[in-house]
Amino acid sequence: MNKNLPSARDQLFNTSEKPAAFCFNEAVAAVFPDMISRSVPGYAFCLEMITDIARNLVQPDSNIYDLGCSLGTITLALRAGVLTTNTQNVTIYGIDSSSAMLERARAHIAAFQPKIPIYLLCEDVIDTKIEHASLVVLAYTLQFILPEHRNYLLEKIYQGLNPGGGLIVIEKIHDTNNIMQNIITELHHEFKRRNGYSELEIAHKRQALENVLITETEIDHVNRFKKVGFKNISLIAKNYCFAAWLAIKS
Predict the structure, then answer these.
(1) Do the Cβ atoms of 250 and 231 come closer than 8 Å?
(2) How far apart are CA 128 and CA 125, in angstroms?
(3) Of 214, 86, 210, 79, the residue nearest 137 (C-alpha)
(4) What is the pLDDT of residues 58-81, one digit of tens each?
(5) What pTM value is reported for the model?
(6) Which structural domains are found in the chain, ordered by start?
(7) Whole-angstrom Cα distance, residue 99 to residue 79?
(8) Labelling 181: which of 86, 127, 148, 188 has CA 20 to 30 A away?
(9) How far apart are CA 166 and CA 174, in angstroms?
(10) Element (H or E) spanning 55, and its range?
(11) Taking the chain, what is the end-to-end CA distance rounded to the nearest angstrom?
C-alpha cells in the first residue's frame, strides 16, 4: 500500500447481512488501498515492477495508459519510472469508470505535483482511444470486463501501441485442474487471514465478486495476446492466483 495514500481499514464485509454485488463505489474507494494490499499477494512487488518496466519501455513523444487506474497508485508508479529517464514529451492517461475512484485519484496525484502531464478521464476503458502508446497497463481490470469484450479491448490496445511498445496485464486467474485450484484458493485465503480478514469477511467478499470478477486461465490470456498480434509474451510474475504478463509489439 502506498503510505502517502490515506485509507480506512477495510471492514466492508464484516457484517451478517448478505453482501450486494461488488462495485467500485465510494465505500470501496474509501478503503481500497487497505483492501488491495491485504487481499492481493504480490501487489507491492507489481508496483515496483511497473515502475521498472516504464523506465525501460518509455519512448519520446508517446502516451502511457493506465486502464482501470482506480486511485492512481499505478499511475504514479508509471510516473516514477518515466521521471528516472530523460524522455521528452510523455503524457500519462489514467482511465476509470468510477467517479468515486477518480475523485480520490485526482486529490492523490495532485499532492505529488507531477512534472509529467497526467490526465484522468472518467470513461469505460472499452471506449478509450489508444494512440501513440509506448506502454499500456491493464492491472486487475480485464477481469471486471465482460469476456465477450476482452478481445476487442486487446485488439484496440495492440493497434494503438508503437512498435517496441508494451502491454502489462495483471489478473486473477484460475486453474483447470481442480485439485490445484482448491489448493491455490486455500493459500490465497490463508494470505487474507494473516492480514486480518475473518472467515466471514472472506466468504462475503467471495459472494460479492461472484459473476462480477470473471477469471480466465493462463492459456486463455496467452492465446488472446497471440490472437491480437503479440509475438513477444512473457509471464513475468505469479503469486498464487494472480499473474502478470508483459507483451511487446514487434
Answers:
(1) yes
(2) 5
(3) 79
(4) 999 999 999 999 999 999 999 999
(5) 0.95
(6) 43-173+217-248 (3.40.50.150)
(7) 22
(8) 148
(9) 24
(10) helix 43-57
(11) 34
